């Protein structure tokens, strides 16, 4: 029963992330003419993490992101069984969030799906993949670092939320910022088209970045 509660918490958290984060992107627009839209969307994603960290964090740890769950699996802070359960719950939550967006904005709204942004002149598959690896590396490194000490528990949600805001401020103009395969896969499935064709970038990049963050932090944290 305890595991089921964790999975439900992860589904709820991911649903809220997609509903409010992707929903804000849909509502305010994220194109080269909407600079304020970038910041509002970045803040929406970051504030969702803050809200969820202090609400479901004590239940599941508030991963709401397969990349984060992978990092915790690598660091042996999550079992294989829970990893599988978390990822399934995150995908279900993301799908429910997309349904909510479809009901609110229409099922042709684009769902805030990630794509290589048209205004990024240097944008291509390789550069987009690199951006997602870097952004996720920074995000997950911050998560591992701030949660590795019990004394940081009071501020960890704020730090993680602000870090997600930070990576969005840069990444939105480039890839729309994924750093989260669950946040990307379901919106791409609902949106179709180019978003679906490119979605592998936003699955592979975050998973690689998260794995690197787990390995690097573990190496740095070892006593000399």
Description:
Helix 4 packs across helix 6 (125-147). It is globular and about 45 Å long. It has helices spanning 2-28, 35-53, 57-60, 66-74, 80-105, 125-147, 156-171, 181-191, 193-198, 201-221. The protein is 72% helix and 0% strand. With 224 residues, the protein is mainly alpha-helical. The protein has ten helices and no strands.
- The overall strand count is 0
The helical percent reads over 70%
Low-confidence residue ranges: none
The separation of the N and C termini measures: 41 Å
Overall mean pLDDT: 94
Shape: globular
User: Which structural class matches the secondary elements?
Assistant: mainly alpha
Main sheet attributes: strand count, strand direction, barrel closure = none
User: Strand share of the residues?
Assistant: under 5%
Give a brief rundown of this model.
With 224 residues, this protein is mainly alpha-helical. The protein has helices at residues 2-28, 35-53, 57-60, 66-74, 80-105, 125-147, 156-171, 181-191, 193-198, 201-221. Helix content is 72%, strand content 0%.
SSE layout:
Layout (H helix, E strand, L loop, with lengths): L1 H27 L6 H19 L3 H4 L5 H9 L5 H26 L19 H23 L8 H16 L9 H11 L1 H6 L2 H21 L3
């Amino acid at each position: 029963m305890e595991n089921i509660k964790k999975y439900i918490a992860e589904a709820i958290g991911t649903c809220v992330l997609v509903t409010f984060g992707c929903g804000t992107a849909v509502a305010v627009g994220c194109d080269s003419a909407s600079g304020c839209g970038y910041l509002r969307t970045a803040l929406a994603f970051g504030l969702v993490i803050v809200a969820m960290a202090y609400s479901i964090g004590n239940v599941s740890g508030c991963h709401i992101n397969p990349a984060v769950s992978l990092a915790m699996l690598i660091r042996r802070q999550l079992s294989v069984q829970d990893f599988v359960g978390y990822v399934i719950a995150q995908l279900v939550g993301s799908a429910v969030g997309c349904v909510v967006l479809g009901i609110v904005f229409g099922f042709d709204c684009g769902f805030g799906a990630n794509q290589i942004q048209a205004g990024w002149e240097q944008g291509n598959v390789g550069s987009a993949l690199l951006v997602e690896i870097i952004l996720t590396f920074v995000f997950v490194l911050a998560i591992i670092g701030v949660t590795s000490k019990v004394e940081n528990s009071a501020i960890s949600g704020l730090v993680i939320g602000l870090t997600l805001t930070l990576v969005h401020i840069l990444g939105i103009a480039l890839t729309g910022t994924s750093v989260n395969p669950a946040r990307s896969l379901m919106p791409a499935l609902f949106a179709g088209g180019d978003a679906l064709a490119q979605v592998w970038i936003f699955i592979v990049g975050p998973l690689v970045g998260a794995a690197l963050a787990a390995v690097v932090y573990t190496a740095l944290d070892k006593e000399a």
